[in-house]
Write a structure and sequence with these properties.
- Helix 1 links the parallel strand 2 and strand 3.
- With 262 residues, the chain is α/β, with parallel strands linked by helices.
- 47% of the residues lie in helices and 16% in strands.
- It has a six-stranded mixed sheet with strand order 1-2-3-5-7-10, sandwiched between helices.
- The protein has a domain of 182 residues: Alpha-Beta Complex (2-enoyl-CoA Hydratase, Chain A, domain 1), CATH 3.90.226.
- The longest helix is centred in the N-terminal third of the chain and has 19 residues.
């Protein structure tokens, strides 16, 4: 596959996948999702690769979620296809036989934070910002935010993150279990590579078996992802979602009050 939205590199047994859309805060579109799947599959098929590092180009964002310029124009049919690409990516990441380290630089929001949840370990730069954004733009985080997030940070904290759509520092992310370690942003990749090299010293089959076993309980949540896809697809093109996406593009606060029944 020829990559346009990502960069794929290999360094001494480590595959480094970089979302390369810094002008859009590394937000993903359909092509980005396809390319990420291709890159993870390439890493899986390479016997010389033992660990994958996922990061974002530049120092402003790891991934700011779905690209509003595409998502805002989705209808139920096209939206279902888009969400299908999301599910294919998460399934590819979850079924990988090799650990994934997220090297989070800058914004890690919405779908970007859900991608972070699919990674095994997270090293955060000191400028990293985490959070969910769905309800603030008329959407819902059914791609990990309602399944893995509560298991990671706890039910109450997950509801706070989703219902209030607040943002959290790298230090707060570590405190709640959303990240493993905070480092100066200039040391981010150095630390991620250091962790990856340490993993490469371990038994590959042991790491694979352990990863599979650790994923077992949350793998049982798979039906929630497919159900979530069907529910969210139905609201694409709705007035509320259109208002949310449009307000984001126009850099204004959305007016959701008009959708509440008196």
């Amino acid at each position: 596959m020829e990559y346009q939205d990502i960069i794929y590199e290999v360094e001494e047994g480590i595959a480094i996948i970089t979302i390369n859309r810094p002008e859009r805060h590394n937000a993903f579109r359909s092509r980005t999702l396809d390319e990420l799947v291709g890159a993870f599959e390439e890493a899986e098929d390479d016997p010389g690769i033992g660990v994958v590092i996922l990061t974002g180009a530049g120092d402003r964002a790891f991934c700011a979620g779905g690209d509003i310029s595409e998502m805002g124009s989705l209808n139920p049919g096209v939206g279902r296809k888009f969400l299908g690409k999301c599910l294919k990516l998460s399934e590819t990441m979850r079924n990988l036989s090799k650990p994934i380290i997220a090297a989070v630089n800058g914004y890690c929001l919405g779908g970007g934070n859900e991608i972070n949840l699919f990674c095994d370990l997270t090293i955060a730069a000191d400028n990293a910002v985490f959070g969910q954004t769905g309800p603030s733009v008329g959407s819902a985080p059914i791609w990990g935010g309602t399944q893995l997030l509560p298991r990671t940070v706890g039910e109450k904290k997950a509801r706070e993150m989703v219902f209030l759509c607040q943002r959290y520092s790298a230090e707060e992310a570590v405190e709640m279990g959303l990240a493993n370690k905070v480092v100066p942003k200039e040391k981010l990749m150095e630390e991620a590579i250091s962790w990856a090299r340490r993993i490469l010293e371990m038994s590959p089959q042991s790491i694979k078996l352990t990863r599979t076993s650790m994923n077992f309980a949350s793998d049982l949540l798979h039906p929630s992802f497919t159900h979530g896809r069907e529910m969210l697809a139905l609201v694409y093109g709705s007035e509320e979602l259109t208002e949310g996406m449009k307000s984001f593009e126009e850099k204004r606060k959305p007016d959701f009050k008009k959708f509440r029944k008196e």
